[in-house]
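SUBJECT: A protein chain and its fold
Encoding: whole-number codes for local backbone shapes
Chain under study, with its fold:
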Amino acid sequence: MDVVRFGIVGVGGMGSGHARMMQSIDEVELVAVSDVDKAAVEQVSAQYDVPAFTDHKELIAAGLADAILVATPHYFHPSVAIDAMKAGLHVLSEKPIAVTVKAADGMIQAARETGMKFGVMFQMRTDKQYRIARKAIDDGLIGDIYRTSMVMGWYRSQAYYNSATWRATWTGEGGGVLLNQAPHNLDTFTWLTGVPKYVTAQVRTRNHNIEVEDEAFALLEYENGAHGYLYASVNEAPGASRTEICGDKGKIVIDGNSVRVSQLETSIQQFTRETDQMWGSPKSQEVQVEVEEMASGHSTITRNFARAILYGETLIAPGEEGIKGLELSNAIILSGKRGKTVETPLDRDEYESLIEELKTTSRKKEGVVEQRVTDPSFADGGTH
């Protein structure tokens, strides 16, 4: 095998974007597409001259593909992925891998039992600023972490939410900003700092006519006693993203595409104990952290996934790590909805019960104007 034959399940905005992207990857061949919308899948089928299916099980059973990319609405990710893995196909899933951690557990278990490769489309892990931050932490440059902060302020219009019946509903999407826009940031945040042990949060719908949250904020406490703050919103323009990670020996600040790593000459604890200077503070200097140059974006994740199948290359974004950011988003929603501090790992059954309860509040959406438009930033590694 010198190429991985891919089928795409779900050819909406993101799925059709992936179909276009696959044409430029030498290790990948698009061989089939599937979608419950017959007209939509036939259009993509004709564009790339590949067979079309309206049932993902038919695509899987056709024997055309070695792997599938799952780009359906969130609730369908686990069932499609598990069906594929049990049939001997590798799975690359769009984010989030599932709506609930219990469903994600099932995907991870299926991958372990079948031995199939399982990856998640977390392309922000390929961005240089996050790779620099990860290396700085791994190399011990900032010491033990004692404070974290993540602020993600983006914007989405009402027209965006009106573009599909499933968007921004408890029955169709299972969450708002935390399940759709924030997963990439939650992934890089937990990739760098780990999953907090305790979460005290609020969620609310501030500016849109939707069922789910368009704003969330949380206080975090980690196993080692470190504290953190998290804010995610789609009510801000211009968009901004900032992460701070403070340690005993230094600090990392990621602001948009830039990163600054500062290291102290003397650790906070040592300086605090030993200095005789009333107004003194540890001196710091910016440290240059070198990482290998590499392309970033969706195509890099897809190529890496194919090469993991072909040559055993290490996955950049293993599917089993997709549960970390999901654990945090579920914890925020559970805390916000129940008005209490919650502990991770979450009580799986408690969260399933909450989601089922929220689904009962869903109502048929009015004013839907169907649009299947790929995120314009997709080609540049956009986070959709």
